[in-house]
Amino acid sequence: MTTKLRREDSVGSTTAKDEVGLVRQAHALTADLTTPSRAFYWADLILTAAAAWGGLALSATTRSLPVGLVAGLVSLLALYRGLSFIHEISHLRPRDVPGFRLGWNLLVGVPLMTPSMMYEGVHNLHHAKDRFGTPRDPEYLPLGRFSQAKLAGFALISLLAPLGVILRSGVLIPLSFMLPAVRRMVKTKLSALVINPDFVREDNDKTRPDWLAQEVGCWLWCWGVAALTVAGVVPLRVVATWFAVFSLATFVNQLRTLVAHYWQNDGERMSFEAQFLDSVNVPPPALLPFLWAPVGLRYHALHHLLPRLPYHNLGKAHRRLSRELAAASSYHRVEEAGLTPALIKLFRRVKSNRVPAEVRAARVP
Questions:
Q1: pLDDT of residue 210
Q2: What are phi and psi of 335, to 5 degrees?
Q3: pLDDT digits (tens, 9 = 90+) for 305-336
Q4: Where are the domains of the chain?
Q5: d(Cα 294, Cα 282) in Å, to the nearest integer?
Q6: What DSSP letter does each residue of 20-42 carry, written as one string?
Q7: Residue 197, preceding bond cis, omega within 30 degrees?
Q8: Which of 212, 284, 302, 335 has the most CB within a 10 Å radius?
Q9: In a 10 Å sphere around its CB, with 0-12 CB exposed, 13-18 middle and 19+ buried, how is residue 82 labelled?
Q10: Do 328 and 361 meet the contact criterion of CB atoms below 8 Å apart?
């Protein structure tokens, strides 16, 4: 049961007191939604993995072009959804959904050579209040200040992600066990999923057996698939289809990343309100975010407000907060209608070098 909060008729600027109030109200209204459903996580992961790999297999083997294209699209969306679970894993405690991290790595992480250790201990830094939006944030760049050409390049470079993980797993990881300098580079610069090229990982100096197992697993998977392909056991078409589907999935994710924030901060520390207002929700009635921002990623601003909420409860939490919070609450100021409108606004904004009103309002003089 939730407590009805008084709504206001006018929208004004928020103060530090309002900022604290938003957090407290949001926590109070969603306290019953913080427990992950183990059955939901496992069912979603298993069905998603089945659709991803089943679609890939059909697309890579059928002689029918229409069937191949449809199967490829199913595989693309499912593979993208499966990969997006890495975000949930970075927030889950081991006791929340026992065995889920291992299961995900076996079904998705290792076959894509993108194990969970590349996000664990990294993504959490993006939520640190003293890091968000600063040069120490692994997942932030002032993209809102980029040129249109540079933004396009940021999106297109993601198409090379499969090549990157192949080089990392098949060449650099085995080489790193022989050359200490390469090992240091792999640990500090090539073991994190980030967009900030200056980020240096600091928590990977000690060997964790599970992280080491993930790296070795990716190495053996890469070499195993390569050997089977050379031997003619795995058709080259299967590998090419995997590469194409994975490449397009990372491209869709990069487009989603462009609209996850307003990306206007220039490196200074931000108030919590400014951090929240720099983030974006894309709630219903839009339907397509279920596909391009899966596993709760459509509620990115809400996730920054309440990072402990499991993805399957974010929709319910959003509806509750939208209904119960005062009209003056900053919570109502972080919504976009969809991917295309948000991208158009971003590219127009960078062309005019204009800062979003939401971010301007949150800046402290």
A1: 92
A2: -105, 140
A3: 999 999 999 999 999 999 999 888 999 999 99
A4: 18-365
A5: 11
A6: HHHHHHHHHHTGGG-S--HHHHH
A7: no
A8: 302
A9: buried
A10: no
